[in-house]
């Protein structure tokens, strides 16, 4: 499982021009489920997202996690994170089949919601427009296979 985590001041995701998810300060998480991923991978990535200490403390150092700043999450499925780019036209054969990906994506979202932070989501499998203001910029890439 892969995630691109962006620290944001605000973000919104739209489907067919209509907003389906919107957050203030927090993280946008682009989540890609790969072949062979399991709940264990989702557990690992969700724990890392929740524990990332990339928000400034009173001294201005990146030292605080999402909960400490009452941050919010916008979680969006993105199978293209598993693109094989060995050719100019990417192959997505490393991405999990849609049924498995949806199940693990929804599991990931449920884990995040259990932490008590505001969680918004995109629409699985839909074409989405994502608008965000990356603060910093801070962008972290997580991969459950490199633990």
Describe the SSE topology.
Elements lengths: L1 E14 L2 E6 L2 E7 L6 H13 L3 E2 L5 E3 L7 E6 L20 H17 L4 E3 L7 E15 L4
Can you walk through the features of this model?
This protein is of the alpha/beta class. The chain has a single domain, classed as D-tyrosyl-trna(Tyr) Deacylase, Chain: A (3-Layer(bba) Sandwich). Helix 1 crosses helix 2. The mean pLDDT is 97. It has helices at 39-51, 98-114, and strands at 2-15, 18-23, 26-32, 55-56, 62-64, 72-77, 119-121, 129-143. The chain is globular and about 45 Å long.
Name the features:
six-stranded mixed beta sheet, 8 strands, D-tyrosyl-trna(Tyr) Deacylase, Chain: A, 147 residues, two-stranded antiparallel ribbon, globular, alpha/beta, single chain
N-end to C-end Cα span: 11 Å
CATH C-level class: Alpha Beta
Q: In the CATH classification, which architecture applies?
A: 3-Layer(bba) Sandwich
Low-pLDDT residue intervals, each spanning 5 or more residues: none
Helical amount: 10-25%
At a glance:
The protein has 147 residues and is α/β, with parallel strands linked by helices. It has helices at residues 39-51, 98-114; strands at 2-15, 18-23, 26-32, 55-56, 62-64, 72-77, 119-121, 129-143.
């Amino acid at each position: 499982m892969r995630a691109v985590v962006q620290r944001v001041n605000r973000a919104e995701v739209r489907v067919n021009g209509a907003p389906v998810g919107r957050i203030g300060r927090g993280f946008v998480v682009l989540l890609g489920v790969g072949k062979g991923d399991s709940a264990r991978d989702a557990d690992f990535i969700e724990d890392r997202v929740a524990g990332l200490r990339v928000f400034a403390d009173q001294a201005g150092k990146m030292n605080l996690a999402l909960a400490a700043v009452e941050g919010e999450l916008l979680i969006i499925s993105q199978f293209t994170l598993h693109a094989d780019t060995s050719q100019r036209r990417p192959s997505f054969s490393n991405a999990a089949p849609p049924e498995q990906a949806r199940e693990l994506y929804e599991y990931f979202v449920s884990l995040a919601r259990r932490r008590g932070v505001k969680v918004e989501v995109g629409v699985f499998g839909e074409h989405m427009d994502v608008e965000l203001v990356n603060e910093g910029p801070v962008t972290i890439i997580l991969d459950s296979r490199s633990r």
